[in-house]
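Worked example 3 (structure in, sequence out).
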C-alpha cells in the first residue's frame, strides 16, 4: 500500500472522481467506506478539515478535503495536469467549475422534498440546464483538434476525468454512453475516449455496485 487513505460513504457520490483519478494514476490507496454511525465518530474527531467527506490522508500525514482538490492533487502527481500554459490550467479549472454548477443544480432537484417543486426543478434541469451546459462543454472541446482529443489536447487531465464522471452519473455508473449525450457527438466521443483508458475502464468494471 502507498499509504493513501480515502474516506467516504459506500457510494460513488462526490468521491468517485477521486477513485477514478487514483485508478488512472495507478496509485494504490485504502478505499474506506463509512456508514453513518462511523462517519459521525470520524467527524467528531475533527479529522476532516471542514467536517465533510470525501477527504484523504497522504503518506506524509497530510489531510486534504474536497473532491476537486483531491482529484487535482492526485492528477498532478501522476502527470494528468495541463503543462503547456497557465491559460490551459485556467481552462481546466473553468471546466471543473462548470461541472460543479451542473452538479449543484442536479443535487438541488434530487433532494427537493416538495413534490411540485421537485417536478419543476427536474424539468428545468433536464430541459434547459443540462442541454445548455452540454452544448457549452462541446464548444470548448471542439476548440482543440475539432473535438478529436481531450479538452486540452491529446493528454488526459483532471478536467476530463471530472467531466466524464458527471456524464457517467446519468448512466447510473454503468460503462455505457448516457442518453443525455445523444445530441452531442463530440461529447460521446470524449466519453468513450476517457472510458477507454485501461485503468479507468478496469476500475469501473470492478468497483462496488452502489445506488449512487
Amino acid at each position: 500500500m502507498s499509504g493513501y487513505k480515502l474516506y467516504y460513504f459506500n457510494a460513488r457520490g462526490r468521491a468517485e472522481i477521486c477513485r477514478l483519478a487514483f485508478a488512472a494514476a495507478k496509485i494504490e490507496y485504502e478505499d474506506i467506506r463509512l456508514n453513518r454511525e462511523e462517519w459521525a465518530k470520524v467527524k467528531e474527531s475533527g479529522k476532516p478539515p471542514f467536517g465533510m467527506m470525501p477527504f484523504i490522508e497522504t503518506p506524509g500525514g497530510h489531510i486534504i478535503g474536497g473532491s476537486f482538490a483531491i482529484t487535482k492533487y492526485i492528477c498532478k502527481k501522476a502527470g494528468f495536469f495541463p503543462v503547456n500554459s497557465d491559460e490551459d490550467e485556467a481552462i481546466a479549472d473553468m471546466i471543473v467549475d462548470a461541472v460543479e454548477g451542473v452538479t449543484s443544480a442536479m443535487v438541488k432537484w434530487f433532494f427537493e422534498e416538495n413534490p411540485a417543486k421537485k417536478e419543476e426543478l427536474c424539468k428545468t434541469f433536464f430541459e434547459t440546464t443540462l442541454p445548455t451546459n452540454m452544448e457549452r462543454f462541446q464548444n470548448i472541446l471542439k476548440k482543440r483538434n475539432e473535438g478529436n482529443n481531450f479538452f486540452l489536447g491529446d493528454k488526459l487531465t483532471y478536467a476530463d476525468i471530472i467531466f466524464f464522471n458527471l456524464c457517467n452519473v446519468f448512466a447510473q455508473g454503468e460503462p455505457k454512453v448516457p442518453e443525455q449525450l445523444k445530441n452531442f457527438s463530440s461529447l460521446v466521443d470524449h466519453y468513450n475516449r476517457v472510458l477507454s483508458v485501461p485503468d479507468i475502464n478496469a476500475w469501473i468494471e470492478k468497483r462496488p455496485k452502489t445506488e449512487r
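Notes: The chain has a mean pLDDT of 95. The first strand starts at residue 4 and ends at 9.
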